Amino acid sequence: MTTAQAAGRALSPLDRAVSRIKQRVLPLFVIMFIVNYIDRVNIGFVRTHLAADIGIGTAAYGLGAGLFFVGYAIFEVPSNMLLQKYGAKAWLTRIMLTWGIAATAMAFVQGETSFYVLRFLLGVAEAGFFPGVIYYFTQWLPNGERGKAMAIFLSGSALASILSGPISGALLQIEGGGLHGWQWMFIIEGLASVALCGFVWFWLDSRPADAKWLTQSERDLIGNAIAAEQAEREKTKPAHISAWTLLRDSQIVIFCFIYFSISLTIYGATFWLPSIIRKMGAYSDFQVGLFNSIPWIISIIAMYLFASLAARFKFQQAWAAAALIIAAIGMYVSTFGGPVFAFVSICFAAVGFKAASSLFWPIPQSYLDARIAAAVIALINSLGNLGGFVAPTTFGFLEQKTGSIQGGLYALAATSVVAAIVVFFARTTAHSAAIAGNK
């Protein structure tokens, strides 16, 4: 390599500042997401234990699994608005502490009612975490870096899906102290979140201006870059625009539907995959956990591949649409054979729905005005995540009434196809006239 080539490849001062920010916060956010996701989905591994020990049936399990997302949806927007008021450091620490306490309390479920209440409270406690991190990126990273940061952050959910199986399977084998293995699983995994919140408090800063680990020059570069991007957005939007005005924008409704469709498929697979694996053979809890990791290992590779292709060839919507079509095909063909064929098909579907999840968020981010981004991102995430309520609740009802979830899988496939068409034509820039007309 010549000296000129080396100079051409040298990082600019802004790129160096961005690199330092990502090295500082992304590993922590990934770890937080891993712990968060495990606490959210670990009930997928205890369905049979809850039925045997406290009599929670299939329909009740599906409803309880889904009620998490109702609490999440109701309190998502208020939580994210409070994050803006109190700062990311204080509010993300609070979120971690309360969700860890609620996750630990799941160990003391006595029946259907307490199961419903604690799942709902867990959703309330977690509300604001995911959109809070996305909003954090809008305050710290230039637009061109957010998609890559999101792909790394979202890998936390895939890593959590990989790790949750073996970890939860191993913890389920603990017996003692008058507690069952599923109770120890909830206690240990919940207290891990409580312990991590202390580190979050000391490690995070709310704004680039507060980051003493950046030089003054780097703080200025980041602040100026974010301000310049906001100024560009304001050229296509009225100078004064309320959150409620933009929330009436039909494009926001479209974003909510797209993310709802993605969440529907993700959580339909997440909560029912361990049950499909158990039908494949007489496996132990730990073996079920190992099998459960396979689709998510594949999905991590797919997420990075799709993110790289989207960055190289542009047109984010087309890549998101392609990923959703792959998810639709996988969910549809999973109904053609036995449990082993269904498992392989869901592995294929995971390539699509996890890649679609990471490809989706840069689309509304590029559309939104930074002044109301927190509220609208929270709205999209909260309403979209209601797919996590609809999928397990519907699957539980179908299995209890018909003995099969085939109809639910058909519905997931159809919804993914519709979402693929919608996201392909989604706008990434707003028109001032259209927004002004909503006033």
Written description of the protein model:
The chain crosses the membrane at residues 21-38, 50-75, 91-109, 115-137, 149-172, 184-204, 252-273, 293-311, 318-334, 340-361, 373-395, 407-426. It is found in: Membrane. Residues 25-431 form the Major facilitator superfamily (MFS) profile domain. It comes from Herbaspirillum hiltneri N3. Helices cover 80% and strands 0% of the residues. The protein is built from 20 helices and no strands. The chain has helices at 3-9, 13-41, 47-54, 58-86, 88-105, 112-126, 129-140, 143-171, 181-203, 216-234, 243-247, 250-278, 285-313, 316-333, 339-360, 362-367, 373-384, 387-402, 406-424, 432-436. Helix 7 runs antiparallel to helix 17 and helix 13 runs antiparallel to helix 14. Mean pLDDT is 81; it is low at 1-8 and 431-439.
